[in-house]
Structures are given as C-alpha cells and as structure tokens.
Amino acid sequence: MKTPLASGRTVRASLHLCLRGTLCIVIAALVSGNICGSTQTRKGTKRTPPLVSPRWYDTLPSDASNLFARGRAESKDQQLAIDKAVMAAREEIALRCEEQWTTLLVSIRTEDASLPAADSGWGPVTLTKTRIRQQKAVRKGKTWTAFVIVSLPRSSLHSLLLERLHRDDRWYSQVKNSRAVLRFESGPSDSGLAR
C-alpha cells in the first residue's frame, strides 16, 4: 500500500504547488520593492523615507534653572502642527508640576503623619511662562510633523507650587511650620525640586 508521500505524482504536485506559492511571494516582494530596496512604487511615484526627528529633539537640554519638555504633533496645516506640538510639551510640563506637588505632599506627610492630608489634585494650571526653545516642522507628503522643545523657568515652577500650597488656607495653617514646607518656601534652590 502506497502512502500519498511515497507516490511520485503526489510529491511532484506538492512540490509544484509549494514552488508556485513561493514564486508568487518572491514576485510580489520584488514588485513592491521590499527585497530590492527600490524607492519606486507600482505607480512610479517615490516612497518617502521614514521621518527622523531632529538630533536636538532626542536629548533634552540640561539646565539647572529650567524645566524642559518635548512635543511632537502632526497636521495637514504647518502652524496647527506646531501649536499642537507646543500643547503636548506644555502638557508634559504640567504633569511634571503635578509630580513635584505630589513629592512635596509626600515629604510633608513623611515628616509628620499626624499632619492633615491635602487635596492631592493639582487642578487647572496656567503655564504662561513657558517658552519655545527649539522648533522644526517637516513636511512628509501632505502632512506636517512638528517637533518642539519648551522650557519653564524653575522659579516659575516654584511660584506655581507656592500658589497651590496656599490655595487651601485652613490646610496651609496646619502644615506651614513643617520642615518640608519651610524648606520649600525658602526658595527654589533649597526646595528639593527634582531636576
């Protein structure tokens, strides 16, 4: 009794189907340019290379007097792409402000657990002192991609945190003599703000 694989006819038919399928894949890959690295598509238009961010965008500046954040956004309109990227960077700075607020609250509670807990919510923040340090808009096809780096002076961050600290007078009157609050109120250089 012959098995299907032992039959020469079955093996040849299987090999033929296998080679035919492989040949179709190879031809499709060659036409699309995936194997040869062609930059031409079927319609004869060139494919755009992948978008690479500017070198300055990949590494944030280090400056003890400023807090930096990056933003990236896309739009069909160049200015809208830049505006969206700036908003993304400002959102990042707002998150960092909220992290600093949480750090301050933890240091107050660590010092004395009997001190009352504050409302941990940061609430709405107006970041009026932010400044665009670098920006670049790159067009790829019909879409603009904007890259920005935005900075906020640490003194402004300190002012924002002080404002938030004094928002609830009743809570502030109970924690104002704690070492963490006194150290924080002494100024941005001694406040323990994370760099």
Described by its quaternary structure, the protein is single chain
* Termini Cα gap: 80 Å
Low-confidence stretches: 1-7, 10-40
What structural class do helix, strand and pairing data support? alpha+beta
> How many distinct helices?
6
N-to-C order of helices and strands: HHEHEEHHH
Number of strands: 3
> So what's the overall shape?
elongated
Tally the structural domains. 2
What's the architecture of the largest domain, going by CATH? Roll
CATH domain class of the largest domain: Alpha Beta
What is the topological layout?
Elements: H1 8-32, H2 55-58, E1 66-75, H3 78-111, E2 131-140, E3 143-153, H4 154-165, H5 169-175, H6 179-185
Antiparallel strand pairs: 1-3, 2-3
Helix pairs in contact: 3-6
